Amino acid sequence: MNSITLNLYKKHKGFSLLELIVVVLIVSLIGFLVFSSAVKQQQKTEVLDPSTLPSTFRKSFKGQGDVELFCIKKCSECYVVQGANISPYDGGINFGKDVKIHLLDKDNHFIELDELGRIKDEKICLRYHLYANGSTTQMLIVNHQGIYYLPSYFGEAKKVADMEEAKELWIKEEYPLRDSGSFY
């Protein structure tokens, strides 16, 4: 080889420092954009409110066995119980003011639950259970925004006009399941 060819070969042997810096910056930018959108998707938590409680809870804890949600401090602070672990609910909470829980008794009359238990001397205002089979606690949530019927068997919460409509939905769900021995 002559000296001119050897000098050209040496000059173009690798990338310059500037080219390497540009490539590293471009790869870093692409990585940042991809990973930041993935983190945002992962951190995107849904707000729990009476109308989204069953669907959000099922979606968040599907296949994780029995999971219970309980809320204290007038339903402004909620916790999730899985086995022996209790952890704060990390999503938003919007159950509204003056949350009252009602159940239908054996005579088909709604009764308001005054006490759902206490934890650390705080009154529990809401206790909601997701069972391993996907069914949930059946209840009526009444707050300043309205009346919400939460079915027990895989249905979605429904805002109702009054307690009578809620009673009809409750009874309608209860009787077909009572007659069916093949549900479980």
Automatic annotation (TrEMBL):
Transmembrane portions of the chain: 15-35
Keywords per UniProt: Membrane, Transmembrane, Transmembrane helix
Top-level taxon in the UniProt lineage: Bacteria
Protein's UniProt name: Prepilin-type N-terminal cleavage/methylation domain-containing protein
PROSITE patterns: PROKAR_NTER_METHYL
InterPro entries: N_methyl_site
